Structures
1.
Amino acid sequence: MSKTVNLIKLSVGTEDVAGLAAWQATRRAQSEDGYPQHVTRMWPKRESEILNGGSIYWVIKGVILARQEIVRLDEYNSADGIRRCAIVCDNPLIRVAATPRRAFQGWRYLTPEDAPIDLPAGREDEEPLPAELSAALAAIGVR
């Protein structure tokens, strides 16, 4: 049985989860069949693990706030002739426990053990804790 792995990605220029959802609702951010997609330069080497139930976790202003299940990886040929990878996601965005994350470039792999938990129903609209408080709680094992 193959393992599952997730991706983690910065949502650059996004102020909150609603802003990410608004961007993904634009035609420019959608695949031909209407799913939200994120085009990236590199193709993940662990494709089979990602497609085995993996999600993309979104970092917004230094905090992981949401995730989306990954539907597939599509080849995307840009105007400059470079082959890229479109990470095609399912809707909707699923809110997760706010978890601080330092900035990085591109995307990274995220194991299921290290992924933040989904927020329970009814808590999706809560404001995240301040990053410092969230980091302190994580340091003592409280998510």
Note: DSSP finds three helices and seven strands in the chain.
2.
Amino acid sequence: MATGSVTDELRQDILTGRFEPGDRLLEVPLAELYRCGRAAVRSALVELTSEGLVEREANRGATVRRISIEEAIQITEARAALEGLIAAQAAHHATSDERDELRGIVDDMRAAVAEDRDGDYSELNALLHRRLREMSGHTIASQLVANLRNRAAHHQYRLALMPGRPGESLGQHASIVEAVVAGDEHAAAAAMRDHLQSVIEVLHRWRDARRPT
């Protein structure tokens, strides 16, 4: 298997929870899992360390990096600035077919909420954000946001599965899409920032709840 493929597979396995934060990433088992040489695994670990998904420590080797709630808050603050720009650019550039696609994603999100399919909702959430990045045509902002989302993926997944959270965020996503479909760049950026501010507020509540009283 090519090194790039090993990196992609390991990244995906971390993002989908096959490897949890704190899990050790040992070269021999990974080489067996991905049917490749240890050199390819080492290269993948170096790449994912640079992306912030893996950390390497002397005498302990590589592990899936733990992201603190405080770091997740800062990541989301950075995303708010970048994704506001992305939403505005998507509103400017989206074609008629792409606008129809966005409406369809929101319809699927509504169905997932109505049927309590939280896992499906989480996947549709990620799809919507990814498609907005692609429609924006802003390559640099899109690359930065993709990296930031990956670094905080574990917190995002927990957030999406919180009771009542999909229903709360559904209206926020619908507002983003409504503005993009209307071609209203200012409203799209504002709706995206409002959505991510609500994520920040939930993370603040998590952090405060974990503090000793």
Note: The chain has ten helices and three strands.
3.
Amino acid sequence: MRSTCRVRVANDIRPALRRSGIPYVFAILHSHQFAALMVSEKGLGAMVSRSADGEMIVPSLTLCGCVPVRGSSGQGTANRGGRTALRNLIRHVRNGRPACLTVDGPRGPRGRVHKGIGDLSRQSDAVVLAAVVVPRRRWIVSKAWDRMQVPKPFTTIDLYFSLPLTCGEDETLETYRRRIQETLAEIESLVDPDEFTYSEPRLPGPSVLRKRAAKLPPPRSSAA
């Protein structure tokens, strides 16, 4: 199905980062993981939970040239797998390849960014690119906690990036986490407002968002 989809990208800063030798990691929503797979880069390291959803996506990741790193960001004993996977992702990025985290997974709530992405960024000296993936035609699993999205064949997938986010010298991990969450939420609220209503974060009123929307560039055709 990947080969049937057209990809359009807005604010693609990746070529400039590559030229400058700056490593980067993606922050995406759990609901976007199947759509993100359609536009993923070869060599992308992706943490995959040890859940049924994770088992389903591993073969597809491998076929697309991605590197699945198994783990869980859950609490208690399950979190041991998440710490191991995070260390492996840090090593992956330090070796010069990008990585991706579903920042509100594996249990949500939808849109709630956990601290792993901040840890990954700080320990690998990578910038964070908050990314929102919007298939124009899609199936939505409305009964799932994250409202998982699956692109329909022959659709166009719009991919939106934030500007690079870095952790300030005196910034706490919690403040950095919150800033990544606000950035991701702001983009989704502008480009996919109907789905954003199911997310935990709440942003300023519509008049403020309309002014911000004018600054967001339209997506352009890309091979991603």
Note: The longest helix spans residues 173-191.
4.
Amino acid sequence: MVAALELYLDTDATRRIRVLWDALESEGVQSMRSLLDRRHRPHVSLAVAPRLDPDQVADALAGTTVAVPLRLSFQHAGQFVGRVLWLGPSPTADLLAHQALVHDRLAAAGVGLAEHYRPGRWVPHCTLSMRVPNALMAAAVRRCLEVLPLEATVVGAAVTDHARDICRPLP
């Protein structure tokens, strides 16, 4: 598991993604619903690292509103190498600038972040499954397309490290 700085979505978008998780499970695809004793929340991660110290992150982001009420418009489904399935919001200038600001503040404070979350490389996404069997990928993508487009508003943020049972809300 990795630690992350997560942006949480409004109630309706969260509900719709959880319904999608259930639909994926009905297709035989283990969704994020199955992880963490069902405590996993639909989100978009702004930064990830092997470990994050919540105090260091909070200090680095002091004076920054992480949970900016950005409007996200999920328009596509995607796949990362390793059978990871996700929904992607349109990468608006506001979203990309916000992620770059957060990343740069964390990096300047010496927080070690994953290279693929560096501005210019980051792919905004909401993970749906980490283990889609190759034979089920087409059916899983069809399920995703049934819920798109999906509009959402960011309503919260937190530093999470599920391996260490950390979830610290941020402003």
Note: The beta strands are 3-9, 43-49, 71-80, 84-89, 126-129, 150-161, 166-170.
